[in-house]
């Protein structure tokens, strides 16, 4: 435990804490990472390619896509489209990275997506949409971070694949840019997690959540039946149960 002044005690978060929160073991994570078949590095594409579609239109498209994949989340999607505040800073101001907060002070999530009209912004939007729907769907359930990232990566994957079927001229660049992001997650960030697993007292790194979540989304054990996905987004599907399938 790390101590601050006035007798305040702040917990020291470690690998052991992270595994316990997700009801996982180091061996289970190691086995999952070991099953990953990392593809060759995809062709490079810039995240700065221009996008001429308004972010609000893409946000609405993400809603239609997620609803089509998981009809049982239609109510949560409707809230995300109609009631949730989404802040597209144009141009970005204080914060350069997108993020989502659980509560905007009125019981709804808040999404911040700095928008410069580029491919990287579209990818961030598809990811944050998944976070928003997960927060709404899970309501009072506490959802561990790796599970939250599974939901966000699913939203991202579905949106990139389905937007590529539309007439958006920037869609091929989006698909290529997502492939680069996945490759980095399954190489650089997966290596960070693998190297940390043997050390239960090493300091927690949020980046550990990404390769674990991405491996599941890539098909390494994640059941994607509609009912299971509703349970997953609702925070009622233990991650350990998904990995063991």
Secondary structure: elements and pairs:
Elements: E1 2-3, E2 9-10, H1 15-21, H2 26-34, H3 55-69, H4 74-82, E3 85-87, E4 99-101, E5 110-112, H5 119-138, H6 145-163, H7 171-196, H8 209-217, H9 226-233, H10 239-244
Parallel strand pairs: 3-5
Antiparallel strand pairs: 1-2, 4-5
Helix pairs in contact: 3-4, 3-5, 3-6, 4-5, 5-6, 5-7, 6-7, 6-8, 7-8
Explained architecture:
- With 245 residues, this protein is mainly α.
- Helices cover 52% and strands 5% of the residues.
- The chain has helices at residues 15-21, 26-34, 55-69, 74-82, 119-138, 145-163, 171-196, 209-217, 226-233, 239-244, and strands at 2-3, 9-10, 85-87, 99-101, 110-112.
- It has a 3-stranded mixed β-sheet, with helices on one face.
- Helix 3 packs across helix 6 (145-163), helix 5 (119-138) packs across helix 7 and helix 6 (145-163) runs antiparallel to helix 7.
- It is globular, with a radius of gyration of 18 Å.
Number of beta-strand segments: 5
Distance between termini?
A: 36 Å
Mean pLDDT over the full residue set: 89
Poorly predicted ranges (pLDDT <50, ≥5 residues)?
1-11
Which structural class fits the helix and strand makeup? mainly alpha
Give the overall form.
globular
How are the strands ordered across the major sheet? 3-5-4
- What is the percentage of strand-forming residues? 5-15%
- Based on CA atoms alone, the radius of gyration comes out at 18 Å
List keywords for this structure.
245 residues, mainly alpha
The gist of it:
This protein has 245 residues and is mainly alpha-helical. The chain is 52% helix and 5% strand. The N terminus is likely disordered.
């Amino acid at each position: 435990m790390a101590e601050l002044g006035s007798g305040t005690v702040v917990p020291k978060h470690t690998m052991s804490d992270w595994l316990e929160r997700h009801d996982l073991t180091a061996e289970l994570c190691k086995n999952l990472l070991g099953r990953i078949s990392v593809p060759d590095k995809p062709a490079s594409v810039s995240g700065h390619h221009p996008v001429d579609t308004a972010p609000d239109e893409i946000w609405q498209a993400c809603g239609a896509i997620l609803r089509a994949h998981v009809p049982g989340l239609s109510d949560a999607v409707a809230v995300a489209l109609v009631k949730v505040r989404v802040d597209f800073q144009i141009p970005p101001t204080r914060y350069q990275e997108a993020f989502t907060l659980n509560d905007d002070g009125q019981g709804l999530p808040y999404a911040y997506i700095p928008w410069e009209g580029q491919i990287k912004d579209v990818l961030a939007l598809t990811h944050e949409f998944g976070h928003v729907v997960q927060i709404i769907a899970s309501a009072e359930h506490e959802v561990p971070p790796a599970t939250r990232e599974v939901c966000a990566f699913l939203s991202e994957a579905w949106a990139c694949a389905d937007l590529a079927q539309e007439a958006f001229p920037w869609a091929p660049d989006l698909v290529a840019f997502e492939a680069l992001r996945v490759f980095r997650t399954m190489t650089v960030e997966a290596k960070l997690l693998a190297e940390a697993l043997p050390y239960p007292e090493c300091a927690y790194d949020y980046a550990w959540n990404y390769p674990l979540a991405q491996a599941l989304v890539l098909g390494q054990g994640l059941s994607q039946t509609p009912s299971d996905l509703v349970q997953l987004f609702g925070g009622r599907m233990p991650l350990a149960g998904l990995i063991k399938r």
